[in-house]
Amino acid sequence: TAKHHDGFCLWPSKHTEHSVKNSPYKNGQGDIVGELAVACRQAGLKLGLYLSPWDRHEPTYGDSASYNKFYKRQLREILSNYGEIAEVWFDGAKGPDAKDMEYDWPGYYSLIRELQPNAVIAICGPDVRWVGNESGVARETEWSVVNRSTDTGQNLAWHPAETDVSIRPGWFYHASQDDKVKSVEKLLEIYFTSVGRNSVLLLNLPPDKRGLIHENDVQRLRQLRQVLDAIFDENLAARATATASHVKADNPAYGADKIVDGDKEIYWTTDDWTSQASVEFDLGRAQTFNVAELAEYIALGQRVEEFVLEAWVGGKWKEFARGTTIGYKRLLRFDDITTSRVRLRILNSRVCPTLSGFGLYHAPPIKEILE
After folding, report:
1. Which end of the chain is least crowded, N or C, by CB within 10 Å?
2. pLDDT tens column, 339-370
3. Model's pTM, two decimal places?
């Protein structure tokens, strides 16, 4: 967060006195954005920056022409002086008492494309959109392909969703919330309702007054990592024999075995305009699982509209899970199922279905994992 709504800049901006250069930090010689950029490079992390359009300090805010010039000068500063920026994150927040202001979004986007052409622009941006809430929940039916208004009317655009939520009750650090960090169970639920619903997850971690992530937050993250590793340690479908009701042009290059080979760049598909198809997975022996994972080959778009998962139990197929969209990843949780055969039935698909990944996993109880 290079600048939030208060307008205070965490880099020594030349365009305002309301910045770290006039703070006690390193006697006014500090540059927190610059230090973060160095730290990210040292750790092998990509750097994203947030510059709040709403500025409650800047006198020109409310004068659209003047403020947009001011804002773009600041945007140019942070995009020119800190190496490669992987993401520029906007929100459109304005309080009810904010002055009327018309942001120059096209001008902001153009400047980013000029200075950081590889940067993803989110959330008020053309590349990644906000899921619509701050509770960590994407829609059960989450399309990355959405209608976008242009000068020529409505067009379909690839505009995937980001789900943002804080690990604490609020977005900023308060010592009074040190014992209110979300539980592992809650974070896991968020993971399944965001990443598991064709969305990416932004989990907010507010630095404390030391400039560090608090120990309670760190502990919870490590626990979440431990739980996720335990759940997804072994894909019980990885060695399955897969057969499909339809294969494109009967070509083995698009066969059902491509779903379970672990290579996301190859996939199973059918001839165009095949809206319904099924794939059966023979696990070789009885396996017990309670999590399923599906992935479309989204380089060709998102297509599946509805699907069902069934297990061969007692001499017949028994439904144990169903969903609508899949996208780059769909995760489903259900009660333990024990079977040697699983069938995926795609009930409806646009153009024709693709699938590049499928997984079955057994999630142990969280308490058992963390013991």
Report:
1. C
2. 999 999 999 999 999 999 999 999 999 999 99
3. 0.94
